[in-house]
Amino acid sequence: MNFHENIFNNLDKTASRAVLQEARESGLVAATGTELRSNIETAREFVRRAGLRKGDRCVLLAPNSIRWVALNLGLIAEGIIAVPLNTRQTPKELAGMMRDAEARLVCVGDAAGANAIREELPAGSRLATFDEVFGAGDGKAPNGTKASPPVPMADSDPVTIIYTSGTSGEPKGVVLTSGNVSFMQERIAARLGELMRGHNGVERVFHYPPFNFAGSWMMLLASLSRNSVMTLSMDLIRLQKEMQAAAPHYFMNVPLLLERVRRGIEENVAKTGGIVGNIFNRARTAWFARHSEEQTGATGGGGFWLGIARMTIFPTIRKRIGANLKALICGSAPLSRDTQLFFMMIGIPVLQVYGLTETTAICTMDDPARVEPGWVGPAIPGIEMKLGADQEILVRGPNIFPGYWKRPEETAKVLRDGWFHSGDQGEANANGNWRITGRLKNLLVLSSGHNVAPEPIEEKLLCELHGAQQVVLVGHGRSYLTVIITGDVPREHASAALESLNAQAPHYKRIHGFHVEREGFTMESGLLTANGKLRRDKISARFAAQIETLYREKSA
Fold first, then answer.
1. Are residues 69 and 216 in the same domain?
2. Between β-strands 511-517 and 81-84, what pairing exists: parallel, antiparallel or unpaired?
3. Are residues 409 and 513 in the same domain?
């Protein structure tokens, strides 16, 4: 049974209870298994009337919603290749991806979305709003639509094309097959089963990342395959309130949000001050010292303050984040070890996941019973991982994509000798857990010949600088390193942090200049990808004058 058939069977089993909810300002709007099935059938009927056939491409350009889910599943049930795109990308970027996919149908959330993209449609494409697909209403199709089984699907059949974030160059369409997704869904189900062991009721899942990201989409499919109800966040401004209404057992995160939550907690405690602040600070010092000591084999105290905080302060903090939380799941980029330890300290495990779109989102997943902070878990069963030249992570298994859409040369560069060349650098420890140490294309090669991976240094500096939003190391082809810092960071604080960092670093990893930019990088400015990754080439180009000044000042 493939992943799609499994979801349909599960919706039949959960006919009368909610499987999806939208967290709207007026409250939660739910769809039962029967209602979602009815929506799916309505979407299938629409694409049949539109003349789409198996293998055609259909773009989904709308925020997460029950309708988005129904259309996505309806397309796959008809053998149509779904192409989800991000509404926050520019019309020019969207036009390039729609043309590349040769989409016959482009479905947008509403009339405003249709007007924004109308002039960018590829020749021969039809534009439709969700109201046209489903009919105007509250987002639920009427009950009674007769369900039909999905079209037969081989493991090799493509089900989606997901475009990469494009940190450099143009985005590429990653083709994922039914076999890729079915294999990965089995592995995700097994890991979630371990996390939820002993829980017999409905699993409550909260979700905010856009479904055009592979990991986000895989979490959606996993939820629809399990005894779960997933609550979709409809407005990031109301995220905390929606999270509390959903009362989740687990949910997927990006590192940026967890870093912000951590900073928010620490700032609130600092404002509270008094005995609460004193206990918290002592407990935090003891916790981090304990973990440092565990690595060196030394022992120490601090248990008293941790015990007091666990009885008095940490339960209140946990309740504000989510009283039912068993774990936070984090992917898309490496999470700071200190942030992972921080959440462990307050009693919320953070499970890391590593993977790329080309690996059907996942290669490794933390084992809930054996989490090592700073590591992203072992390779999941059925997947092989090893290190190639320059410590590059190589992967093979049923999760590896068949290739990039219409890009055979690009495909040949990354699929060689049966292995997928990830472009990520890493290492594995004796426990089989992996750590990501950098990205090959980000490697800075100094004029001295020394190679410097920027990510570990950037992470350390970001942790040191209160108020910093991003840190970008510069120095490729130069004689030394400098850095661009964004956020509300006083120059004297930046100077002190660099002095502390440099004291522990070899000479070629020392930073000899910095520029502070008050405004952080954003996707709208073109300096971040849709999932928050740095567009380093564009950042270097945008700040070329400031970078040149840093090197002139040092050499003067």
1. yes
2. unpaired
3. no
pTM for this one? 0.87
Paired residues of 511 in beta bridges: 481
Average pLDDT estimate for 431-438: 92
User: In 118-238, which residue ranges form alpha helices assigned H by DSSP?
Assistant: 130-134, 178-195, 214-225
The whole-number pLDDT of residue 173 equals: 96
Helical ranges in 25-109 per DSSP H? 33-49, 66-77, 91-101
> Rounded to an integer, what distance in angstroms lies between the CA atom of residue 72 and that of residue 67?
8
Whose CA is closest to 520, among 483, 484, 475?
Answer: 484
- The total domain count for the chain is 3
Q: For 456-470, give the secondary structure using H, E and C.
A: HHHHHHHHHCCCEEE
Rg (CA), the chain: 24
Distance between CA atoms of residues 244 and 323, nearest Å: 8
Collapsing DSSP states into helix, strand and coil, what is residue 390? helix
Residues near 316 by beta carbon (within 8 Å), at least 6 away in sequence: none
* Paired tokens of 369: 């019973």
DSSP 325: -
Banded pLDDT at 139 (limits 50, 70, 90): very low
H/E run at residue 279: helix 274-296
Region 62-76: what's the mean pLDDT?
Answer: 97
CB 330 within 8 A of CB 373: no
**Which helix (H) or strand (E) element contains residue 330?**
strand 327-330
Q: Do both 50 and 94 map to the same domain?
A: yes
Amino acid 301: pLDDT:
56
Q: Which of 440, 471, 499 is the last residue of a domain?
A: 440
Element (H, E) at 276: helix 274-296
Query: Average pLDDT of 516-523?
Result: 90
Q: Which residues are registered as beta bridge partners of 204?
A: 229
**Among the three residues 219, 249, 279, which one is the final residue of a domain in this structure?**
249
More confident residue, 33 or 505: 33
Residues 278 and 222 in one domain: no
Render pLDDT for 239-286 as a digit per residue (tens, 0 to 9): 888 988 899 999 999 887 898 899 899 999 999 999 999 999 999 999
Strand pairing category for 126-129 and 250-253? unpaired
- What is the spatial distance between Cα 512 and Cα 501, in angstroms, rounded to a whole number? 11
| Structural domain boundaries enclosing 481 | 443-555
Residue labelled with tokens 């990031």: 236
CATH number of residue 230's parent domain: 3.40.50.12780
245 and 352, same domain (yes or no)? no
Query: What are the tens digits of pLDDT across the range 194-217?
Result: 999 999 999 999 999 999 999 999
CB proximity list for 387: less than 8 A, separation 6 or greater: 393, 394, 426, 427, 428
CB 162, CB 216: distance < 8 Å: no
The pLDDT, as a whole number, for residue 136 is 56
